[in-house]
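Re-run requested by the PI after the first attempt was lost when the workstation crashed. Everything re-entered from the original request form. Ligand of interest: nicotinamide-adenine-dinucleotide.
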Amino acid sequence: MMKILVTGGAGFIGSSFVRFVIRTRKDINMVNFDLLTYAGNLRNVEEVATNPRYQFVHGDMAERTQIQTLFQEHCFDAIVNFAAETHVDRSILDSAPFVRTNIEGTRCLLEEARQRKIAKFVQISTDEVYGSLGSSGAFREDTPLDPTSPYAASKAAADLLVLAYVKTHRVPALITRCSNNYGPYQFPEKLIPILITHAMENRPLPIYGDGLNIREWIFADEHSRAVLLALERGTPGEVYNIGSGEEKTNLEVVREILRLMEKPESLVQFVPDRPGHDRRYSLDCSKIRREWNWSSEVGFSAGLAATIEWYRKHEDWIREVKDASYRAYFDRVYTRRDETLAISATQPQNLLSDTYKTRP
Ligand code: NAD
Ligand code: DAU
């Protein structure tokens, strides 16, 4: 029996991984350690909550003493670090929680891994660390890091720390870098759940700039399947790209959602662009195809249809997460977009203070 620590397992992708591992692997015990920020939600892991192989611990991975206590109480064989601040738009308004959780939080885990002689450490990173592509080419694992947003910079810094701990302290860590995820349980601040939940209510669907930015979309459960392979077969010190090969412009994404939901294209609303908006991401995933025989098996339209069905059946979940702090965030980033972007361009202030609430 292996015992693993999963951080951020109450979030979107972390909860997919938690549900997947508990459902499919009877030989793995798990502790889900999560701060339950605005993005963390215990309803995402409701189906495993009473499973004897699963335990939830509420805590902050950027608090070293909390991590020390956690490791005194549990003997972990491996760590999978999903926990992070993850939304680019929020990082533009206030980078402080990104630096704290994504960099200092990862450092706290690495320190503990070093002292406890953990057998495997999987750092969940992102394709955004590579920066932006033109109309051709794809990021390889050895593409130099060139992050654009504060979010991407904080993830790149964490990646460099991980690689430094591999070299200096022989921590057996590896890094996965995945493309854009979508699927059930995604917090409605990211593109696809915003579009679906707005279309459900016949509200305008906000598209930044000209809508021609390109992302490579992967169904989150497919990402989870690859992360389990990384845990079991990944080599310390290595980086692994994870993607679907399905590149779409944002306009193609919104049109496909409107088609599947039988809603008119007149709902699309172009809004001022995100500052520093990366134009295109694309991943070369030949390494994991070759080494693990992994490729994504869920096509974009099928995954999108399943995602739409899930949101339609979970209006109570949507209502709950679109609480007062969500509405305050939405007001700043969308309703008062021009004003907010103008302020964030000129004044060094935290525009999100009352929207960063940790759940009790
Ligand atoms: P999310 O925002 O949905 O969830 C993040 C989780 O981390 C939440 O449950 C939150 O409560 C928890 N958390 C935040 N700060 C914490 C702290 N200090 N201590 C403990 N827990 C904390 O994120 P997601 O979209 O599921 O992303 C998960 C990981 O995958 C992140 O590392 C992200 O960078 C990476 N990633 C995301 C995508 C994507 O498209 N969403 C793509 C590639 C990589
Ligand atoms: O590529 C992986 C990354 O994907 C992850 O590391 C991040 O955690 C995750 O948030 C995601 O980043 P993006 O910035 O690509 O995702 P987002 O859903 O915010 O935006 C996707 C595209 O849609 C991007 O081009 C911006 C655009 N967009 C986004 C929102 C929220 C809009 O046009 N309108 C919107 O309202």
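Saved to the shared folder this time. The first strand starts at residue 2 and ends at 7.
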